[in-house]
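step: validate -> pass
step: tokenize input -> pass
step: predict -> running
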Amino acid sequence: MSKISVLEVENLAIKIDDVDIVTNINFKLESGKTLAVVGESGCGKSITALSIMQLLPEVARISKGSICLNSRELTGLSEKDMRAVRGCDISMIFQEPASTLDPLMTVGKQIVEAIRAHNKISYKDALTAACNMMDKVGIPDSTTRLKQYPFELSGGMCQRIMIAIALICKPQVLIADEPTTALDVTIQAQTLELMRSLQDETGAAILLITHDMGVVADMADMVMVMYAGQVVEHGNVLDIFRQPRHPYTRLLLRSIPHIEKGRKKKLNVIKGIVPDSHNWPSGCRFHPRCPLAEVLCSINEPSMETIELSDHSVSCWNHTHEIESTYE
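step: predict -> pass
step: emit ->
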């Protein structure tokens, strides 16, 4: 029996000054599952997450589509109603904790405010809950740390504070936007393990935005590959890694460095850059960079096609063709 989706995004489109930034985004996320959203910078990952939180910049707007949290439509909610949802039912860990945390407020007070914004609880009880959460996220000597300001903490500690704030009200959905980008390798591993253990404890669904395919392999149940504001491939993590079908997905996986190749072996790269949103290519948006591109690809835009009755889908005219192994 399939589980009920806690978050459903259907036909989502976002415009900035009447320019399509993101189009036709569709996915479902179940409780206790992790969906990884991958792609190069500029592909629309972060702005999709911000639209779910209803935190788009003033110049951007949702022009089409539906965002449902437990069957409740979020796109039409007032700011007052949405504030009751943010931090309680759905939370977000941002890329840069140092710039997200208030530098003029102790970290303890910031966690306490997150609790009291959604719960009728005394300051003393909220402070106790904050200490307990800091212990859970692996911050030592929490009673002392509560009184410190963000600038007094390391990047890893600030990231843990962000996770504590995001999880303090036990949200049903956690959005993590590049949560390990600014951290060293050891702290990255600790942060991912922390997210995984807290997910096991609370049953939260995680939308994980990353460009690190190693993190995807370690954390994700499902993978959504975005390119130039569109979803080009979607499937479970095993299918994406074992049988990727879109040329972009395959090239992303080939670009992962392998230690066995040796130092003199050139890294595989994807030629070119992500196109500018004011000048999307006609047809398939990846065709100017694609080694399998044909005339058809530059004229007609492919639609998402389900592969063999599975939950694996791809948007490509030539997804059955092989890419030459010499492509670098």
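step: describe -> The chain has twelve helices and twelve strands.
step: cleanup -> pass
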